């Protein structure tokens, strides 16, 4: 750790103001929006003013530092949770990780919360429209795939795509855009698709969003394959949730239905059903990669343009 961060200036050297000036309400607003990272509760409790209008400070697990630095090297993407700064914070106690990051502030919460709140917004209408409006779901998945393709191009695999990793930047669902976050399980890849810096351990994420090849390997005693298109299966599961308001595969059904690729067709046009089938392809060799999936999602965006009219989605809710 010390060697990796050699020469990195302290927070006081990097930033003109105190590092962890966060309002007390920030953890309540965003604690679930950036899963996988730990809030520096000691610093938050001692501060009353905001660090920045659209910024928040998080502690970083030690193994994430190189991945986050690699993401900084990739540059900015509008649909990736922005890593604005990475620094050594002074005053860390024994056993604490002395690395913190500054990331953008997203007020809309994550997709899991948005879908749950929506389910209770209108019990009568949710039976007719369990998920979000089709064109909105297409726009959202296109944004998330754009972020994923950007990561994959930079040889970074996310490894934990699920509703809690998909963050809304606006409290009004019909106006919100999607940002991909939660990089606590992400890993860099060598050119031969072998992970550089992720140790063995439990597979991350929910089984309902885990690619079947990873689930099979988790139940075996052999080594674990690192397949970059496993992220694409998870993205297909997220898209299904947007459309149907429920997972394509429940935990109790895993791995039987997922291993066979058996799921009820989501509502929507045939083109949408065919698109999701390319992501929920059991054979990862035949499964769409992030770039080809993005191209198809963008085509669907043109075919089914997004509406900003709240009347287009009678179950739309305000998350504020």
Automatic annotation (TrEMBL):
Pfam families in alphabetical order: Pkinase
Chain ranges of the Protein kinase domain: 1-300
PROSITE patterns per the UniProt record, alphabetical: PROTEIN_KINASE_DOM (PS50011)
InterPro entries per the UniProt record, alphabetical: Kinase-like_dom_sf, Prot_kinase_dom, Ser_Thr_kinase
One GO term describing the cellular component: cytoplasm
SMART domains assigned to the protein according to its UniProt record, in alphabetical order: S_TKc
Record-level Gene Ontology MF annotations: ATP binding; protein serine/threonine kinase activity
Stretches assigned to coiled coil: none
PANTHER family per record: MITOGEN-ACTIVATED KINASE KINASE KINASE (PTHR24361), NUCLEAR RECEPTOR-BINDING PROTEIN-RELATED (PTHR24361:SF613)
Protein name: Microbial-type PARG catalytic domain-containing protein
């Amino acid at each position: 750790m010390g060697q990796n961060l050699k020469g990195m200036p302290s927070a006081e050297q990097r930033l003109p103001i105190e590092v962890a000036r966060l309002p007390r309400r920030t953890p309540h607003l965003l604690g679930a929006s950036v899963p996988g990272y730990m809030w520096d509760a000691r610093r938050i409790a001692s501060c009353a003013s905001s660090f920045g209008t659209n910024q928040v400070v998080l502690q970083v697990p030690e193994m994430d530092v190189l991945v986050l630095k690699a993401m900084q090297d990739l540059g900015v993407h509008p649909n990736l949770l922005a890593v604005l700064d990475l620094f050594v914070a002074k005053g860390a106690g024994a056993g604490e990780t002395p690395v913190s990051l500054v990331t953008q502030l997203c007020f809309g919460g994550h997709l899991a919360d948005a879908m749950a709140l929506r389910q209770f917004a209108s019990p009568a209408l949710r039976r007719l429209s369990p998920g979000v409006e089709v064109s909105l779901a297409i726009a959202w998945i296109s944004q998330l795939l754009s972020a994923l393709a950007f990561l994959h191009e930079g040889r970074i695999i996310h490894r934990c795509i699920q509703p809690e990793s998909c963050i809304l930047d606006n409290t009004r669902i019909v106006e919100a855009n999607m940002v991909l976050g939660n990089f606590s399980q992400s890993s860099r890849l060598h050119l031969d698709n072998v992970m550089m810096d992720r140790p063995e351990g439990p597979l991350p994420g929910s089984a309902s969003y885990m690619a079947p090849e990873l689930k099979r390997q988790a139940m075996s005693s052999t080594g674990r394959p690192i397949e970059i298109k496993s992220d694409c299966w998870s993205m297909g599961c997220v898209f299904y949730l947007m459309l149907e308001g429920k997972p394509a595969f429940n935990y109790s059904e895993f791995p039987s239905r997922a291993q066979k690729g058996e799921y009820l067709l989501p509502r929507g046009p045939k083109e949408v059903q065919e698109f999701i089938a390319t992501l929920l392809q059991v054979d990862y060799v035949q499964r769409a990669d992030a770039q080809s999936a993005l191209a198809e999602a963008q085509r669907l965006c043109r075919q089914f343009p997004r509406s900003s009219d709240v009347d287009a989605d009678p179950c739309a809710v305000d998350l504020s």
